[in-house]
Amino acid sequence: MSNRAAIVIAIDGPSASGKSTVARLAAQRLGYHYVDSGSFYRGITWKCLREGIETSDATQVIALIARIDFQCFLRDGAVMFAIDGEEPGDQIRSQPVQEHVSDIAAIPEVRTYLVRMLRDTARLGSLAMEGRDIGTVVFPDSPFKYYLDADPEERARRRYNELANKPGYNNVEEVFDSLARRDRKDSTRKAAPLQIALGAKVIDSTGMGPEQVVDRIVDDVREAGH
After folding, report:
1. What number of other Cβ atoms are within 10 A of residue 199's Cβ?
2. In angstroms, what CA-CA distances link 80 with 34, 38, 126?
C-alpha cells in the first residue's frame, strides 16, 4: 500500500498514559499496523550506550546516525526495526535506556532522522502510531489525532506494574520521580516539545479501561468510512 492510500491514527501523550496498549488494540481491531515511535528513539539510545557514546554529546550521536543501517519491517502486525542487522529487543526497555532517551530525543538532527523513518513506515500500510509528536510533527495532516493523558499517580502505578519484575525500579515513588523527570524534559525541550496537536481529541484515560478508549477511536475511524 502506498503512502497516499495509508490511513494513520496518531496517538500522543506522556509516558504511561496508555498510548501503547490503545494503539496496539486499535491496530488489531482495524487491521492496521502498530508503530511504537518511542521504540525508535530508545533504539538509537540503546545503540549509543552499546557503543559507549555519551547520549548528551550531540556531535557523537549525530555521527552515529550518519553511519548506522536502520531497517524497518513488519512482524505480527507491528512495525519493527533492526540497527546494523541487530534487533535490540527488550533491551530498549532497560532502566539505562529509559533514563537517557530524553537526551537523544532532544537532539534536532536525531528527530529529523527518525521522523523521516517513521513517515516512511506508511509505505507498509495503514498505521496506528503512538508517541509524543505524531500528530504535531510526524503526521500533522492525519484526520485521526488523539492525545491521551492520565493522572500522574495513575501513570506511575501503570508503569510500575509493567516494570515490577525488572531491575532498577523498587517502588512506585521511584517510577513517579522518573516519569516526572521525563515529563519535564519532554515538555521543555526546544525540538518538538510534547504538546496537544491542533485538532486532536483529548482523552483522559484515568478512569477508563483500554477497550473504552479504543472504542472511541475505532468508532471515529469507522464513522469516517474507513
Report:
1. 12
2. 9, 12, 15
Enter the pTM of the model: 0.84
**Chain centre distance of CA 156:** 17
Residue 81: count of CB within 10 angstroms of its CB: 16
Identify the residue with better confidence: 12 or 183: 12
Whole-number Å distance between alpha carbons of 24 and 159: 17
Q: What is the distance of C-alpha 225 from the center of its chain? A: 27
The 3-state secondary structure of the chain reads: CCCCCCCEEEEECCCCCCHHHHHHHHHHHHCCEEEEHHHHHHHHHHHHHHCCCCCCCHHHHHHHHHHCCEEEEEECCEEEEEECCECCHHHHHCHHHHHHHHHHHCCHHHHHHHHHHHHHHHHHCCEEEEECCHHHHHCCCCCEEEEEECCHHHHHHHHHHHHCCCCCCCCHHHHHHHHHHHHHHHHHCCCCCCCCCCCCEEEECCCCCHHHHHHHHHHHHHHCCC
| pLDDT tens by residue, 94-138 | 989 988 998 999 899 999 999 999 999 999 999 999 999 999 999
What pLDDT, in 10s, does the model give residues 161-173?
776 555 555 666 7
215 is written with which cell numbers? 472504542
Number of alpha carbons in the 13 Å side-chain half-sphere of residue 73: 9
pLDDT digits (tens, 9 = 90+) for 162-216: 765 555 556 667 776 777 677 676 766 666 677 899 999 999 888 888 899 999 9
